[in-house]
Amino acid sequence: xxxEAVGQLIGRVDAGAPNGTLAWEPTPVLPADYADxxxxxxxxxxxxxxxxxxxxxGEVAAWTGVVVPPNAERAAEVEGxxxxxxxxxxxxxxxxxxxCLAHLRDPLRVHRVxxxxxxxxxxxxxxxxLLGFRPVEVEAIFEARVHPTRR
Length: 151
Fold this sequence. Notes:
With about 150 residues, the protein is an alpha+beta fold. The protein has helices at about 1-15, 30-45, 90-105, 120-130; strands at about 45-55, 60-70, 75-85, 115. A 4-stranded mixed sheet has the order 1-2-3-4, sandwiched between helices. A hairpin with a 7-residue loop joins strand 2 and strand 3.
């Protein structure tokens, strides 16, 4: 049950967050596909750490995931953080991300983590600032309209 719910949330990370002018569609991850991805990561020596917040009815209200590389010199990467709209405004995004980071510190002894957020996502940027993330680079995203009649 949780794997299916997490797959639904993962599929809404990009679509449910402010992304400036980008228009993302939800892309749910099926439980079998996510199990395959976790197995692939494990075979590569990577560790996936996920933290969930459950609503009183047992539904997944918030999720965050971090992928830890096998090489300790490389930073772990936040895969995403998502809070269902009905549960926003209660600090769940910050709570699941903070809990995940705490687990990375102890027992995994991860010392560097990278994350990203669109400038338009002021909520996640505030959470990242609260948790000690600092900007180190800016990514330029370019968009082109493809015209099928032009070559």
